[in-house]
Queue: 3 jobs
Job 1
Amino acid sequence: IGQITLMQMNMTFKLFFIGLLAFCNIVNAQEKRPNVIIFLVDDLGWADISLRGAPIDTPAIDSIFSGGLALNRFYTTPICSPTRAALMTGRDPLRLGISYSVVMPWMNNGVHPDEHFMPESFKAAGYQTAMVGKWHLGHSQEIFHPNARGFDNFYGHMHTEVGYFPPFANQGGIDFQRNGETISDEGYETFLLADEASRWIKARDKEKPFFLYMPFIAPHTPLEAPVDLVQKYKNLEDTRELTRSVAIDRTRTLSGFLPSARPIYAAVVDGLDQAIGKVLDTLASEGIEEETIILFSSDNGGAAYAGGGADNFPLRGGKGDTYEGGIRVIAAMKWKGKLEAGKNFESIMTVMDVFPTLASASGVPMLNTKEIWGRDMWPAIKDGKKVKLDKEVYFASETPNYGEFHTTVFNDKWKLVQVITSTLLEINVENKLFDISDDPYEYKNLAEEYPKLVEIMANKIREWRALHPISGIRAQLVPPPGWRAPKDWTSYTIPIEDLQEDASLGFGAHAHQVLDYLIKDHGRIIYDCKPGDWERGKCKAPELPKTHQH
């Protein structure tokens, strides 16, 4: 009897141990977080993949749409740097001072170090993080750089328009680095990024999830491609419709202005697709397709002006506009085995929603302390449910013409497009109102039929624009007179240890509250503070450094 009892006890213990192991495995499986890859392409048109009828081979990009969820109403800002700022922070880029224009090489601007970036939350949750590609969110001080914003590894360019072939320079200065060290890798830029991303994925710590951000330069101008791709599309006919944007179409209709950019643009997009395909093949060969969330998006509408080559039809306008063609972009999300393939998501989603949505899908706590505009769209995406906007969306651009502002405010039904042109003596305001739910391609201007609604929405834009920091970015297409570019952009950067600890308050710091109140609609002196908020105790007036206190 004793032997039987002992045997039974041993068997019970074994069963208990096996059950405990099984339970632990289940818990570990539940707690395992997915990898995340963000493919952000530059100036890709709404209609520029073969899945949407484009005469361009894009099987890799098509596979993200066909194997995932097409985000059919995904919105970004009309231009580059503001979209990247919104993507990284979940915040309204106008509040950050990066809205009207992009970070030009001769600027000192960047995103305020007090702002929290998406990779910082993922890194704190145990993710290994990397960025491969174009930054364009500040280069003058190291505190603005990718490695200071949550990325363990950075390979790429601080600026835009560095070219697709060596020496990868902007304004004549070399702009190619790995974690702050200048590099001289040879090859086609788009392919180099794919090679680096694939290498990094294979060399990763397989015990930890990863967060990979891949902001390509392609297909941004100036367009260049390998010889074989140039030859492949050299006879491509340009059959694009006009965009119905005066600013864009006038560049394409001037006789002899420029030859069609469509053939070389197609070659660049084909190369982009090959690069994305290589990264997707790496996921497959590593056996981690079902463990990886993929988000694909353009940073703004396609550059449809002369020299750009993109096609946003049937959307109106393109890059730089606040018509749909400038802000409603091609986008998709894929998570094999988790999201039903080949479906469409029709709710409005913006680039500001990406951070909270990916954090939610990955089970990553967001460590933001500032208010974000973005919403967690993951429950709606996962369950295929439609969700309404809970507040209006605002976008603006002053690019390329100084003093010409393209703005918009919209909700699920109504959209006001406002173009404000200023000279030294006058300001002209053009309002166009669309029922965007019924007229998504913006053919019928209803401004004259609903003047009161136009007045209300225009006032919303005015109040929103008053939140812009007064020294935030404005259009500056040329450098200050006499400015010289560095020979190497890596050496241009001021290291963190050479900077003071606190952000500078500038002159008149002792009177910031009064000045902020008096400036009213012109913008904000006190960073991230609404007009009158400091009076109501909702935000603090800046504290003077001890050396300036009396």
Job 2
Amino acid sequence: MEERVNRPRNLALAVMFVILAAAFSTASDIYIAQNAAGGNTGADCADAHAAAWFNSAANWGSNAAQIGPGTTVHLCGTFTGSAGATMLTVHGSGSSGSPVIIQFESGAALNAPYWSTNGAINCSNQNYITIDGNNSGIIANTNNGTNLTYQNPSKGVYFSNCSNVEVKNLTVQNLYQRVNDTSSNGSQTYGVYFDAGCDHIKADGDTIFMSRNLIFVAYSSVTSAQIYNNTLDHSSWMIVMGDDNSGSSASGVSIYGNTLGPHFNEWLDTAQTMHADGIMIFAANSGSSATAQIYDNYITGDMCSTPVVNCSGYIYTQGNSGTSIFNNVIYHTTSASNGPEAEIIIRGNSPGPAPSQMSVYNNTLVGQTSNTVCVKDGGGQAGTGLVVKNNIFLNLSVAMAFGPNSLSSLNASGPNDFFGNNDVAADNFDSGPMNEFATLPVWQGQGFDKNSSSGNPNLANYMPQSDSAAIGLGANLTGLGITPLDSDIAGVLRPTSGTWFAGAYQDPTSGSAPAAPT
């Protein structure tokens, strides 16, 4: 009898739950165009709501037909903004496992003469937001740049105090079209900007070009940041993470699989206010810290062919602790050089911390006259605990250069392959005259690189060929527990026992090398 009584009661409760869930669930798909279309229901592009509907806080929430957790907002057609405008402003959050997704439909674009410093898309104080370009979406400025109507600051996508946010598969282009310009105009243009207060951030699969800054993170407290598989060019700061203020911290940072360059020089200015860097992570304020893994990136170009400019590093770290740089291919493309260009820079600069426990593993560093691993003093802070292993240094002016008149920052070096370099190493690099260690035997006399080679790495598309000196030269680093390092840049597993190859590629059949720059 009790069982017969409970069944109707349970059934009634189940029905009520379904009714309540329907009443308080958000719409799963809403379509937005610049202006309302058709029946203005938001059911599809033909009946899209207007951008103004998206921008009204009243249309965000947990009720049916509102934008909320689990909603995909589809952007339809071309949105044309006025000069200095913001087209879309986010007014609510998603939730864990159910983000709000803003997805560009095929052919969708946000165009304006120039977008606001708050972005064409603005997200402030909201969480669990994904912007998906869907491999076809575009954000662009149409009239901002050299010899154009405007020379104004601008941002493509802007986040402030947002957590669990992602920008993926989106093209951001021409925020500042710079041509034959050595002025400082355009310095405040940003493709994707994560401002202070953001955490758990991702930028992946994006194509961003023609802006001074492409992906920029001003961190206060970041515990997870992933920037990967992006194609970036026509910029002097392509990926930047910098501390917002004293006591800022960045950890859980992974920057990998990105293709950068080759057009750095377009942004060099004679006033030297816009120096060039490919990937830059810095902790410049007192009490700040930064730790990252930087790997599997392909960086090419020339930063310093223009005279009297300020250029620095393809990978630049300042004040980092425990950061690992590995499996990167860096190619300095021309022999012309007019500045202290370096392929990897590790430094400190007061009042920020000195670098410590940094590591440089299995990189392929190819150049003409540039310097490579450069530990600069920057206010006497060269740091301690640097380890340099399994790298190929090819055709460089100085393979390893150290700032102060001391090698104290270097904890261990070797095995590495040095070939075609003017100097294997030098110290007193910043103030000079340098103490040069021109050959490997002379450098080995300092107690480093005992098992290294000066043989030809014989690279084809950056991969060691069958008679390469890099084959079997490298130490087995499996025991370090750096999981991405256990595979080469092409994803081929390195052996768990026995020697490794030096450089970013494990063998000549690892896979296709990055496409040559065009």
Job 3
Amino acid sequence: MGRRVFLKKMAAEKALAAWRKSLRQAGWQLSGDETLPVADAIGRVTAAPVFALANAPSFPSCAMDGIAVKSYDTFGATESSPVTLTKEQFVAVNTGNPVPASCDAVIMVEKLNEAENGGVVIHEAMSPWRNVRQVGENAVKGAMLLPTNTVITPAAAALFLSAGVLEVAVRRRAKVAVIPTGDELTPPDEPQEGKVPETNSTLISATLKLWGMEPTVWPIVRDNRQAIKEAVFEAAEACDMVLLNAGSSAGTKDYSADIVQESGELTVHGVELRPGKPLLLGVVKGKAIAGLPGYPVAALVDLDYFVKPLLFSLCGKTKSPEQVIEAVAASTISSKLGDEEHLRGKLTPIDGVTHFTPLPRGSAALGSAVEADGVALISPDTEGVMEGEKFKVRLTDTCPPLDQSLIAVGSHSLLLHTLANELRTLDEPLFLTSIHVGSMGGVRAMARRRATLAGIHLLEPDSGKYNLPFISKYLSHQPVGLLHLCKREQGLMVQPGNPKKLSGLACLERDDVRFINRQQGSGTRILLDIKLGELALKSSSVKGYDREETNHVAVALRVARGAADCGLGIRAAANALGLDFIPIEEEQYDLLVDESFFGSEHFSWLVETIKSSTFRQKAQEIGGYDVSSSGEILLSPGDDC
């Protein structure tokens, strides 16, 4: 069978409008409301207006602890001319008590002074109905308390009960079928070699639950046309919407589009959206059906852009307004002309400007969806955003307070993850994210003021010093601080037992040794080149010198899986993956600090955390780190190196 092709791709906005129109024409609606006790209806949507069945309160009640009086008896009372009330002229009351029929005001207990014979002295006259809650103050019998299609909040529930409403009619939750498809899938609790754990149904169904829907996950359906068709028909009979996951593209086993086209209406097949292009939208048996991409981030984008507004409309819910801020690009961002791109990233304020640093792209980059503070909305009419250019960013639901966000752009270190965890345990937590672009990448980010911190471990061969010579060379125009984080061991990471019997870097010129390198600009790559020069070894003689990874764990993983015999990295990464380690160099790892952050209260919290016994203990447990001098300030902004 030949490859299918997409129908004409549609702009995302037009695709959503077309799907809405198709569903209106099909008469798609939510049938059947339900009546629930008020306490069980919190968070649900009203199916009809709710009216008060009683006045609330139903009697004049005291709003204060004190005494109930006739306001007439208090007239003339002032600070200089107090009035004494006899015990026959007042009644002691507490908050919530009915106001005695003979009284029309309440004086709070704090304003009373005892007089002889049980009387009280007052220094202020009371107007009629002062400190008295009138009948119907909260609700008048017959008045509308809440209109149709309104979410019932805890406050609304309390109001209902006070007004005699014990049950309320609410919209039924939309039932949504989630059908995972694919021969390559296996349940996560039944792992199989060569199979992919099926996690998208959890991702999708959990998102639907957060939206107040009622998802049902079907068992995995294999790539069989008839089996998928039967599952779709069964789901359409039982649910209000069907979400097919995977099979929406144009491959030889992507049957979803044909099934929808044959069985109903295929409204959309392919959208101008990145990620999320391989999407289908349509109608089957009068029910909404969407075919979501198999890659999780793409599925999330389409779920939020297309599925959420339709389900909210169906259930009478109002989509909360998105919080959108203006940010500047921390680096140039390229984008494909013609596609609206939703790019996830981290946000960091520096001197009153919020910087957006992109996270790894890709429809399968689920970690980016977890870590993102915001989503940059890049117009289909542009080819991207230039560094320093302003653009709009939609904040994610998990975005921390921006004034508590820190970003470290530079060398990879497992210790930064430990530090980030410890900072989150503070009474007022700080949220540290590290982005791995190598030490020189960190220096460049700091020079352009695109990061709060930058991890570096740069050896200057002539002096044998770390980091300070590079600050003098590359950051003389930009005052920065330097904070010592640790010393750590760099060496060759080799497979357990060291099967190639490697003893050091001199072994890299052997024909039977496959090496995996770090990227250009990383401190580890610079160290390697220095050491190769000392040994008079040419990089061309190292098999794998041009094969690169961007962090120590990735290098260790390549070695652990047998894709390389060795790689230069830190002992902590070798320990993490159970590799043997051949020490080469103890290096100094420091943090460049932006001048606006240096000396701030948050900076002092950072230093205290690094110096803490808890942090140092955890560093020792990882192994390969010397933290005896951690937290020492090596350079203040403006000082000579």
